[in-house]
Amino acid sequence: MFLCLSTLPSISMSIYAVSFQEDWEGQAQSICRTAVKGQVSVTGLDGLTCSFCDKVLHGYHSWLRHENQHRGIYNHNCPTCGKGFPTKMHLRGHMFHHTGIKDFQCDLCDKQFAYKHLLTRHILQSH
Questions:
Q1: Model-level pTM?
Q2: Which domains does the chain have, with CATH numbers?
Q3: Rounded distance between C-alpha atoms, residue 45 and residue 28, angstroms
Q4: Residue 109 dihedral angles phi and psi, to the nearest 5°
Q5: Residue pair 29/39 in contact by the 8 Å Cβ criterion
Q6: Rounded distance between C-alpha atoms, residue 51 and residue 32, angstroms
């Protein structure tokens, strides 16, 4: 048994342990058991499981951001109105409401967008 200290956040969480089990091909599979607010979630090769809704997320930061949204914890706050956002990208898009500046511009028609994914969709659908 090894303690799983580096892969899990310390926010309201106690870490039990990591054990290794052999899967049917004989490869080592890491199982990490954690208790979050009294619930146990198990993670392995399939990803990290949300302790609130059982959604499986692939990647530690995606999992942490998702769990923080359930908790109402937003690390990126608007300096103008104080509204919180889960990512810098969401905050950057929100800032358009205060500044009117759209940071993403189409090189083909000069149309502007607050979010990069909207520009990408525009290019794929319009050009």
A1: 0.50
A2: 13-71 (no CATH), 76-126 (3.30.160.60)
A3: 10
A4: -135, 0
A5: no
A6: 13
